[in-house]
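can u do me a favor
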């Protein structure tokens, strides 16, 4: 056994130890968080001058959950804003907060500030190592190999009070922990830091691809934070390959790379290699004829797997990812948020559709709000809003039950609802294995209809089935609940690849309409208080424009998730300008049984 696998076994055995006594570890974790932050303004408000140090951890746990209320991020925002404005008194944590992370705010939300501390970077390093150890067991890689990693750190900036702000990944890439990882890891990112932090995602993507090909024989796996970035990169590659091959042959760098630092760093890795350039060019010609099927294994012959978040809002990109990846294993990456890491994928060999995330009980104190879908039955269709009850601690969750995740973190969030819905699919020792279901927030709603992102995803997936009879591919989608004219109606925007026949697209439109299984929607459609659904086909590149819009407004490429529903006027403007064809479903005739 070499050193690395010793380290792998060590970290897995640490994890097994805490997983098998997770209930006790959680009680201790909460005790530790409260002890470290004893006396901060927020806790004083709810716990007064309680002598935490003298209390039994179990007694403290029940007192804490009975005295401190469940909150959402908005309730903590006034404290976080004071920190951002430079208030140095202990508001949420005793350790001064010098860095704030921007969470993506997900679906249509605005970015939120979340405190980032040393603990955040440490837990990131720890979950990366743990996850790599589980992956190496199932898919061993060659030590010293490389990773073609589509990662992007965004700009850090200063808040009014002089704190450093940026995405959590940006802080991590700038941290001591990332340096440690780079020194001790078994495989290295192909791109130098100047490419990762270049600030222009198109330029970085070009360089990631170029360097990935230069080191193609050494690449052990392809990765990104969210699967979207890999799909986006290979879609760009379909247009860029000839230019990239020229650069490989001549040892030059395309003029499209304008960042001086990036140019210098990448040129430092290049030297003319006509043999490699011609070889790749030949393969690309062949691949182009095959619509880039299996491009990853064909160009990276030693690649063992593709690793990225493929669950939740990334599921719609899975089909395209499989197209590019061929027979390679697709490994779904871990579950976390800017607020805290949550769970690790301990079964990397299972397919992304079956991916589960095993909660790491030392990272935060986790609670779970049981959610019950209000089953309003109608012709066998039933999916509606949630009914919730009191949260339960980690060790008391039940298999099959859905929950919303609540976090108490080392970074000063106390009983904060994350807004994610998960289902418990089993246990690893005493700690639950979670399946990610969706964001809890409703996205499509006009009156009594209620649809989550997942409901929309399912409707779009079913509605796109008629496309399988054709060569048309659904590239991306979003939606809007339009109330400009009465009755209001849903608009679904589709970008497709290939010429769509009118009758097929009209069929898709009808299919999407009847694929919303929400009772409120069905009733409203039948009574015509919601009008026929509209399917708008947008021109090629529209979703790239949306990405560019978000990036130019400060979003980070590595964190980007296409908003699945929007009422943002700028976005609607882009979508409407780019719409080339519109379809309306007819009167709502029958509701289907699935
Ligand atoms: P952010 O804080 O911007 O990084 O976004 C965090 C959110 O991304 C989480 O709350 C989830 O909704 C989503 N997310 C993170 N990891 C996963 C995963 N493995 N599967 C599905 N969704 C995820």
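np, heres the sequence
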């Amino acid at each position: 056994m070499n050193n690395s696998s010793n380290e792998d076994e060590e970290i897995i055995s640490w994890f097994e130890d805490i997983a098998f006594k997770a209930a006790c570890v959680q009680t201790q974790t909460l005790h530790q968080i409260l002890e470290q932050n004893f006396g901060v303004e927020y806790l004083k408000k709810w716990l007064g001058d309680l002598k935490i140090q003298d209390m039994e951890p179990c007694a403290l746990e029940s007192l804490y959950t009975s005295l401190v209320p469940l909150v959402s991020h908005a309730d903590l925002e006034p404290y976080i804003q004071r920190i951002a404005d430079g208030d140095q008194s202990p508001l949420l944590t005793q350790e001064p907060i010098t860095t704030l992370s921007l969470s993506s705010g997900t679906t249509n939300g605005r970015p939120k500030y979340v405190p980032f501390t040393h603990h955040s970077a440490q837990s990131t390093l720890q979950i990366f190592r743990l996850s790599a150890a589980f992956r190496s067991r199932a898919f061993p890689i060659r030590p010293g190999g490389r990773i073609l990693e589509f990662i992007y750190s965004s700009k850090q900036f200063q808040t009014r009070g002089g704190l450093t702000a940026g995405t959590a990944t940006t802080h991590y890439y700038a941290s001591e922990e990332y340096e440690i990882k780079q020194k001790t890891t078994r495989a290295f990112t192909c791109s130098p830091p100047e490419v990762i932090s270049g600030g222009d995602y198109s330029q970085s993507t070009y360089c990631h691809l170029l360097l990935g090909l230069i080191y193609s024989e050494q690449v052990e796996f392809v990765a990104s934070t969210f699967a979207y970035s890999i799909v986006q990169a290979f879609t760009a590659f379909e247009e860029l390959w000839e230019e990239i091959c020229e650069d490989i042959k001549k040892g030059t760098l395309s003029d499209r790379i304008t960042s001086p630092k990036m140019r210098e760093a990448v040129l430092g890795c290049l030297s003319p290699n006509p043999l490699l350039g011609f070889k790749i060019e030949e393969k690309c010609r062949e691949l182009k004829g095959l619509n880039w099927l299996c491009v990853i294994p064909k160009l990276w012959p030693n690649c063992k797997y593709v690793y990225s978040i493929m669950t939740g809002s990334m599921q719609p990109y899975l089909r395209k990812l499989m197209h590019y990846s061929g027979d390679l294993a697709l490994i779904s990456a871990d579950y976390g948020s800017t607020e805290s890491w949550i769970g690790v994928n301990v079964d990397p060999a299972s397919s992304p559709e079956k991916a589960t995330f095993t909660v790491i009980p030392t990272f935060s104190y986790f609670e779970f709000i049981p959610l019950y879908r209000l089953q309003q039955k109608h012709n066998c269709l039933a999916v509606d809003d949630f009914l919730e009850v009191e949260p339960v601690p980690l060790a008391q969750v039940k298999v099959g039950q859905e929950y919303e995740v609540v976090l108490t973190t080392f970074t000063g969030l106390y009983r904060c609802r994350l807004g994610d819905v998960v289902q418990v699919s089993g246990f690893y020792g005493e700690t639950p294995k979670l399946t990610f279901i969706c964001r809890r927030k409703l996205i499509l709603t006009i009156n009594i209809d209620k649809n989550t992102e997942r409901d929309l995803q399912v409707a779009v997936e079913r509605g796109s089935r008629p496309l399988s009879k054709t060569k048309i591919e659904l590239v991306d989608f979003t939606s809007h609940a339009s109330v400009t004219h009465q009755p209001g109606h849903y608009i679904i925007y589709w970008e497709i690849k290939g010429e769509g026949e009118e009758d097929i697209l009209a069929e898709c439109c009808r299919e999407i309409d009847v694929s919303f299984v929400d009772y409120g929607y069905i009733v409203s459609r039948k009574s015509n208080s919601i009008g026929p659904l509209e399917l708008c086909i947008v021109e090629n590149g529209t979703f790239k424009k949306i990405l560019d819009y978000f990036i130019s407004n400060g979003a980070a490429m590595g964190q980007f998730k296409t908003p699945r529903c929007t009422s943002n006027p700028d976005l609607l403007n882009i979508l409407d300008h780019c719409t080339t064809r519109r379809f309306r479903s007819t009167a709502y005739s029958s509701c289907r049984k699935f």
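Residues 376-384, 590-594 have pLDDT under 50 and may be disordered. hope that helps!!
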